[in-house]
Amino acid sequence: MRKILTMELLTDKRVKSFRPILEAEASKLMNLIGSEPAGGVVNLSRLLVSVGNAMTSRTAFGKIRGLEGSFLPVIHRIRIIDEHVSRRRNRETEHLDKAVATGGEEEEDLVDVLLACTDNHLEVKAVILGGDTSPVTVEWAMSELMKNPEKMNKVQREVREMFDKRGKVVDDACFNELHYLKSVVKETFRLHPPVPLSIPREGRETVVINGCQIPAKTRIIVNSWAIGRNSSHWTQPDQFIPERFLNSSIDYKGNDFQLIPFGAGRRMCPGMNYGIFVVYLLLANLLYHFDWKLPNQIKPQDLDMSEDSGGTVPRKNNLYLNSIPYHAP
Ligand code: HEM
Questions:
Q1: Which residues bind heme per the record (predicted)?
Q2: What residues are paired with 322 via a beta bridge?
């Protein structure tokens, strides 16, 4: 299953085939925020969770809606979902039928159904991790940028210059050229890896690391949150400084062990390409289309940054922001 996910489902090419769906959902979100009266307060955390679920459900169940590129047909081929559904002829399957009948509009229900049917299979993990992690990253990036207005100005300038010059809405063709945006994303992953503790793993052999013997079968959990804030790897580790990545080759792809938001090695996240695309897409859109202000005269330095707990770690308290639409000159 893992091989199918990485080889077939979530390759760069496959993620590109999801683009129209993902872009459509991002643009729906921008319209929704834009429909607020100018300066209206939006619960950005809530909106990001909904768009994340909608994106994952629509890419997972796209074929049902007649869209190409869904990864569910592959999952169907190996019959895992089918097995679960037929094993459990109960309330959850009724939900599934209803959602299918309505063309998959009840997207959150589909995720609920998968959750209810799961024995912790990889495809269900994929939907769960896929739905949450990118929105959580964007939520933290926006929080850090609100706390650091000069970084916000800098990244908005870059994003707007790029897309105004192109004279079109935000698309992925030039994400690679948005160097500061990239650094903002890396810095967000460093301070707020959405999955701070890896999935527990067991070593197959006894190994010695830095003189410490780890017997075979020991359960290992890697704490990427602690690594990201370790002062032996990072200067001013608690400060949000995207500039540290501008002239650095450090990336999040599992080769630089001081920055491993997706894990590393053979068990690293198979959804990285998909996840990172969604982060850029949402963040670039939010930064391009709106100016953002903290409501109720909250000062940037007073913005609450408490973390929740759980497998994926979002903000403890929702991020409420005033949105002011940006009109290109
Ligand atoms: C910003 C986005 C994401 C981040 C930061 C992230 C991070 C992670 C991390 C840290 C792990 C554990 C790796 C380990 O234990 O060594 C993981 C596992 C996994 N992720 Fe992601 N993930 C993201 C997006 C996604 C997406 C979009 C999908 C699928 C659509 C996905 C599917 C999975 C699956 C199936 C696993 C389990 C792999 C296994 O057990 O072998 N992830 N992810």
A1: 269
A2: 41, 293
What is the phi/psi pair of residue 195, to 5°? -115, 85
The answer to whether 259 touches 189, Cβ cutoff 8 Å, is yes
- Report how far residue 16's alpha carbon sits from residue 35's, in angstroms, rounded to the nearest whole number: 29
Query: Measured in whole angstroms, how far is the alpha carbon of residue 236 from the centre of its chain?
Result: 25
Instruction: Report how far residue 183's alpha carbon sits from residue 185's, in angstroms, rounded to the nearest whole number.
Output: 5
* Phi, psi of 324, deg, nearest 5: -120, 115
Ligand 1: which atom is nearest the Cα of residue 136? 1
Run of H or E residues at 214:
strand 212-214
Q: Is 274 in the pocket of ligand 1 (CB under 6 A)?
A: yes
The stretches of 264-311 forming alpha helices (DSSP H) are: 272-289
pLDDT attached to residue 190? 98
**Confidence band (pLDDT; 50, 70, 90) for 110?**
very low
Buried b vs exposed e over 260-293: b needs ≥16 C-beta within 10 Å?
Answer: bbbbbeeebbbbbbbbbbbbbbbbbbbbbbbbbe
pTM strictly above 0.90:
no
pLDDT, one tens digit per residue, over 178-232 is 999 999 999 999 999 999 998 888 889 999 998 999 999 999 999 999 999 999 9
| Nearest C-alpha neighbor of 22 from the set 309, 275, 257, 268 | 275
Instruction: State the Cα–Cα distance between residues 78 and 234, nearest whole angstrom.
Output: 44
Using the mean position of ligand 1's atoms as its centre, give its distance from the Cα of residue 326 in Å.
Answer: 34
Q: Is 174 annotated as a binding residue?
A: no
Check: complex ipTM more than 0.95: yes
| Residue 26 CB less than 6 A away from ligand 1 | no
Place of tokens 């921008």: 30
Q: Structure tokens of 110? A: 């589909």
| DSSP 3-state of 4 | helix
